[in-house]
Hints:
Layout: H1 7-26, E1 32-36, H2 38-41, E2 47-48, E3 51-57, H3 63-72, E4 81-85, H4 100-118, E5 124-127, H5 142-155, E6 161-164, H6 189-195, H7 197-203
Parallel strand pairs: 1-3, 1-4, 4-5, 5-6
Antiparallel strand pairs: 2-3
Helix pairs in contact: 3-4, 4-5
Amino acid sequence: MDIRAPRAFEGFQQVRLKTIQTQLDQVEGPYIMVLGDSHAERLYLPSLCGFPVVNAGVSGATVSDVLDLARKITPPRKAQAVLLSVGTNDIWAKRNPQSAEAESGFRTTLVALKQRLASWSGRHALIAIPPVASKEEALFPRAAATRYSAMLAQSCEPKGCLYLDLFAGVAQIPEPRSAFSDGVHLRNYARFVRDREAEICRGLGIPALP
Length: 210
């Protein structure tokens, strides 16, 4: 069963789209784009690999929503790289993520999204679906997150694509609950990116500037 986004979300999408396009219109010179769902939108990352970052995250977005966004915004020039974070809203239990239909739809839409992003940049990083707090795993099953992250990894062709499991270490934090702001979202996404910035830049073929 398809669960359509409520009108309030559709309205938010439209406002967010205009904000993203306005920021793209203002960015000067080389830049990096972060695209995706709320994990992307909440990532505070003014720069990466020495380049300014444009945040194109949209809270609540599925991979289909991100594809729709990507079709409606126009980058001023090619980006140095695009970091993509999708999947959490696709594995929402109410969307029956374990069904063959849902998994097939995710794969198909991801192919279309990557084709769209190919015109934006020749370098892409696909980020594994972050874990959620144990109290939220009934709504966002870890088994589904593992399967959908595997789809992301499989879609990541070696040339110009880097698969990143940035948040695997959350489970090793002494008090993992303290890592989350609300059970689904982390308090500090930037920390995980900064800890592996040199690896990310090197993997994408972008030398990290001092």
